[in-house]
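BUG: 3D viewer hangs when loading the predicted structure for this chain

Environment: internal workstation, default settings.
Expected: structure renders.
Actual: progress bar stalls at 90%.

Input used:
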Amino acid sequence: MLKLKAIERNISFEKGKEKWAYVLQPELYSRLSEAKTISEAAMRSGISKGTISAAYAAISETIAAWATEGHSVAVPGLGIMRFGVRAQSVEDVNDVSANLITNRRVIFTPSVELKDELKRTAISITCIDRDGNIVKQTGASDGGNVEEEDEQGTTTPDPSPSNPDTGEEDDDGGLAG
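Structure tokens produced before the viewer hung:
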């Protein structure tokens, strides 16, 4: 179950004015360690922790090596990751340099199976007023749309059933579909 909280916040940007609204955000859990992940995978698969650990390390190193060489790399069972950059643009070719890069990014495109799992995940919302009091708890039925972020940082909604995303890459590194 995906747990969300709706916290009442002042969303006014004008000094001295108040405009209160409930803002949804996921409840964040603790980060699970690599050791916990390996332990759970060993338990679920019946493979020893040592073997899972070695495979986990090898897969991680392979993904990092290939991604830093410019490949989009499949992360088994999860999706595709690649590296990208955000950079300023210039009109004159003589001004092009690495100094234009404002940040480096990891871009992840979830697999169809992962997006489908997220769509099926139940949602619980706890509403908290400006004084910190719980004022409502509810479930949610939102249709399960899943957005993806593209390299420019814009989000696109889940494709319609008439144009499904296969999650597979074509030969040019883009998504086939």
